[in-house]
Design brief:
Layout: H1 2-24, H2 28-44, H3 46-53, H4 59-70, H5 76-87, H6 94-109, E1 111-118, H7 124-138, E2 142-149, E3 156-161, E4 164-169, H8 170-183
Parallel strand pairs: 1-2
Antiparallel strand pairs: 1-3, 3-4
């Protein structure tokens, strides 16, 4: 827990500073697009994440990588921000900063994040149905889904929105049935 709070103490100010700068420059949409691109790139490239996290790789190399990978694809503000992270030795936290920025953006845009765990890949209509239910539950304007497939659920779905959890999985139903049967013994 301590390492999580330490990283949050590092991550939050940088995400908030980028958000503040984006709003101040009236450039929020472009920077939000840049942040999504950076997040997708980090997700797709484990090597890039490892390079940024490595204390053995120098700042000059990391700046060169930022320039080569993101230089022409992101706005000058975003590129300057990435270079600042390298200078301040905070580039290792880039993935977490991206996630925090996205969370701040969801608050501004009134978008709820629903973390979905399902046994099978969801169809488009199932995703739309879940979005509608989460909208009704939260009052959000729209809903982002973060879907994870876990065959151990057997069937059904687990939906987590903030601190609320709806467990409609077969595994959850079996666990509740077991609890009720053993409680009666």
């Amino acid at each position: 827990m301590k390492s999580n709070s330490v990283s949050q103490a590092v991550v939050a100010p940088y995400a908030e500073a980028l958000m503040s700068l984006a709003q101040e420059q009236k450039n929020l949409d472009a920077i939000a697009k840049d942040v999504r691109l950076i997040g997708d790139t980090l997700t797709d490239s484990l090597e890039l994440s490892q390079l940024f996290a490595s204390p053995l790789i120098g700042a000059d190399v990391k700046k060169g990588v930022v320039e080569n990978v993101f230089g022409s694809q992101v706005s000058p503000i975003t590129k300057s921000f990435l270079l600042l992270l390298v200078d301040r030795k905070r580039i290792a936290f880039l993935g977490q900063i991206v996630n925090e920025f996205k969370a701040l953006l969801r608050v501004i845009d009134q978008v709820a994040l629903a973390e979905i765990t399902t046994a099978l890949k969801l169809s488009r209509s199932q995703e739309d149905s879940i979005r509608d239910r989460v909208k009704a539950m939260t009052g959000a304007r729209s809903v982002d889904l973060d879907v994870t497939v876990n065959p151990d659920l057997i069937g059904g779905v687990i939906i987590k929105v903030g601190s609320q959890v709806v467990d409609a999985s077969i595994r959850g139903q079996l666990r509740r049935l077991k609890s009720s049967l053993t409680a009666g013994v």
